[in-house]
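hi support,

uploading two proteins for the ticket. first:
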Amino acid sequence: MKVRYHYVNKAEVKYCESQWTVKEAYEYLKETGYRSIPVLKDDGKTFVGFIYKVHLLEHFVEHNGKETDQIEPFIKNQDAYIFEDDSFFKTFLSIRRLPFLAVINEQNEFSGIITHSNIMDVLEDSFGMKTGGVLLTVGTKEHKGAIKDLVTAVKDINIEGLLTLDNGDEYIRRVILNLSGELSDQKLQKIVKKLEDKDFRVTAIDRIAKTN
């Protein structure tokens, strides 16, 4: 899964230019309602960092700064970017402390941003929030081949998604299976019994309605 399929395109992104004054940037942040936006240069082609509303306020209130001062000293997070061809899951390691990440294309030009909302969309998709389905949370004693055994036990059912939790735990692991939504209660109970006969423990069953 690549970043290029899960980010906000530049045409939809609010940003400011690196040559703006503090007043221009602050007024634009107030207008857009964001606490931070990207800063670009070279007519919007090159990413140079983020500007934060709080830093501009500190400049005005705590340091008696001038409205005509340039924003360059207040640009932060110059390394907060990821490339279009990077793995999407790389964002989990990079975005935690940030409001968003800039996305850079093959020409090293700014293409857009990836947000926490984009990450939630991908997670929701893995849980079947768009397609609907039945989520089974299955507990299993950790052993070699545990996932293979689990998938084999439900091989006659279409698995829409699979998510593992408690990775690295030496004793127990939880696995969330997203199964086809076309399962009757009777069929579902047969699946649960089959899993439990194989020493798996179904700890939760959730039906997810398909969203439009």
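and the second one:
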Amino acid sequence: MKEQMRAQGEQMEAQPRVQSEEVMTYAETVRDLVRAIQTAGLQVSLPAPHLDPHSTSEPPHPPDTQ
């Protein structure tokens, strides 16, 4: 039981290290891609994000017709 708890503790300590290494690798890859795009002189246009209208708790009101 004690050995199993020790193994679990070691695994929990190692997990953030592995995740940190994965994030660093991802960041390096993104940096390399950005440099390649800049070097090639390409411009990347991203589509505008789809923004839903804000919802309210009030129902819509018809326009005044007076």
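thanks. also noticed: The first helix runs from residue 2 to 40.
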